[in-house]
Amino acid sequence: MAATASSYSITMRLYTAADHSVVGAVATTIAHNGGVVTAIDVAESRHDRLTVDVTCSAADATHSQELVAAVAEVEGVTVHKVSDRTFLLHLGGKISVQSKVPLRTRDDLSMAYTPGVGRVSMAIHDNPEDVRKLTIKGNSVAVVTDGSAVLGLGNIGPGAAMPVMEGKAALFKRFADIDAWPICLASQDTDEIVKAVEMIAPGFGGINLEDIAAPRCFEIEARLRESLDIPVFHDDQHGTAIVVLAALTNALRCVDKQLADVRIVVSGAGAAGTAIVTLLLAAGAHDVVVVDREGALAAGDESLSAAHADLAAATNPRRATGSLREVLVDADVFIGVSAPGILDPEWIPTMAPKPVVFALANPDPEVDPAEADKYAAVVASGRSDYPNQINNVLAFPGVFRGLLDAGASEVTVDMLLRAAQAIADTVSAEELHAAFIIPSVFHPDVTKRVASAISGREG
């Protein structure tokens, strides 16, 4: 059983016999049952008992329970308490507000608040453009969701979406030093969402739409871009598209193919799939076929929705029809943003020589990356426990850093293309390899390079 890194990590507090060999027996038991021990700490040692904290990772929640049960069977061991480290991390939330100025004396208060603050407010009233300089607006982003398409969890609502939006805000701060605020709206009505964002927009330098289901997200983004004078960016669409294009640029370098020449099959016609296709076409791709549950989208199919009909009209120049298995034959690239397990690894050999497979459905990809790796020249996924993770963190912090630095009022396709190229170029020719087509999210240059590409300024 494959163990993950930390997302299913637990700490067991154990009472054991006063015999340190028991600790070794516990570690062996966990390993034998497929877990990975990451820490063992003796919290207390007495002549009659040891108190031991054992931290280990598991494949999933059920596996965690199995590990606890196995440890409880070790002779001389009592499981006193089990803590889920992910839940502990979220207690009380993951972000907070911190003042940037000292408030120790009346003098401090007189400048930070009344009466001094009134002068600043009137200065902004007289010169509205100064709001970016004299408030947090110039370095703040609203992370807005309605909770209708959260990660791979579906329509779970605004409250349940809050931990994800908090996480997004923490990432903005960590990677781009941007102050981001979770805005979870109690409505899934397009008009109400647009109105709510328009009403809060004066306090922000940019809007990051997040986890809003298609096709509603398309209209919300389009209307907000039309009505607001600050950039609006739907990360599920454009962040994903940027990183996919960056990864594909380097994957094609590995197999010595050109974007304009390859056949690409995209599984998934939702927000991410639509944005990926749009950016691929803008980058110079010509032969792209989109597949949904019913098969390949082709122009002229009157059964298609308006959004899918538009997508079909822009793609599939050969008017290919049929299932994913059928249109995959002789394709150079597969990009999946759809559902787990829909790609049989044995279909990959029917693709063109040196095929590229991006299985990006989360948390479970369209095909097991390890199985795909047996047949494909380059494999990428959305998972952190395999090489070539396609992660939006490579894009959105730098994108917004660049937008805010430039005081931009909109996001353009040219900006997205430049951002993708900046990410791709972060991997040097010496580093480029089939198992390393995309930099780590912790690469120190990624955010700076993307920000410079967006703003047009030197990093």
How is this structure best described in words?
With 459 residues, the protein is α/β, with parallel strands linked by helices. 39% of the residues lie in helices and 17% in strands. It has a 6-stranded mixed β-sheet, covered by helices on one side. It has a 4-stranded antiparallel β-sheet with strand order 2-3-1-4. Strands 6-5-7-8 form a 4-stranded parallel β-sheet, sandwiched between helices. Helix 7 crosses helix 15 and helix 10 packs across helix 16. It is globular and about 75 Å long. The mean pLDDT is 94.
- Helices, by number, come to 17
Mean pLDDT: 94
Which residues sit in consecutive blocks of at least 5 with pLDDT less than 50? none
- Write out the strand line-up for the largest beta sheet, numbering strands in chain order: 11-10-9-12-13-14
- Shape, principal axes of CA atoms: globular
- Biggest sheet details: 6 strands, mixed
Q: Using only CA atoms, what is the Rg?
A: 25 Å
Q: Which structural category fits the helices and strands?
A: alpha/beta
- What gap, in angstroms, lies between the N and C termini? 44 Å
Number of strands: 14
Q: Indicate the proportion of strand residues.
A: 15-25%
> What fraction, in percent, of the residue positions are helical?
25-40%
Supply database-style keywords.
single chain; 459 residues; alpha/beta; six-stranded mixed β-sheet; four-stranded antiparallel β-sheet; 17 helices; 14 strands; 17% strand
Summarize the structure.
With 459 residues, this protein is α/β, with parallel strands linked by helices.
